[in-house]
Structures are given as C-alpha cells and as structure tokens.
Amino acid sequence: MNQIDVNNSGVENDEQQTQSMLCPLCQTSNQCALTTKQEIENCWCKTAEFPPKSVLLANKLDGSACICQDCLERIKQEVALGLKRID
Ligand SMILES: [Zn+2]
Ligand SMILES: [Zn+2]
C-alpha cells in the first residue's frame, strides 16, 4: 500500500521552486528531482545519508532547498573530520 501525502508541502510556489533548483551553498544545480518535475520520492536526496539537522542548520540550510551531492559529501567529510563545530 502506498501512502500518498495529499498535503504536498509547499511545492506550488513557482518562485520558490526556481530558487530551490540551486544548491544554497554553491549555487549550482542540485539535481533535485523537484527541479526536473519528478516526484520528490525519486530524488537522490531521498536516499542520501544526511548529517544531523543541527549540522545542516549550522550551514544555514533550513531544508527549503536541496544542496547538491558535492556539498553534501563535503559537509559529511567535515563532520567526520570534526572540522565543523556543532553548537
Ligand atoms: Zn552545492
Ligand atoms: Zn531533492
């Protein structure tokens, strides 16, 4: 059984959608499925392993836009190396 979320959280705003096409960290295309008109469930970010939310917030990421895979890897490495301070 598939659970379909009817509450389609905030994807109808065109302007926001355009902004969320870009990685907020490096301003290149984040390849998010939403930017290619696919279901968010198909996005690479759905299967990627993300660092804890506190880390993302420390990078000024509030979850409104996907970062790109490069930046995700970089952040994860920084966390692993203990370079990022998590306050
Ligand atoms: Zn990036
Ligand atoms: Zn995504």
UniProtKB/TrEMBL annotation:
InterPro entries xrefs: Cys_rich_CWC
Its recorded name reads Cysteine-rich CWC family protein
Species this protein is from: Shewanella hanedai
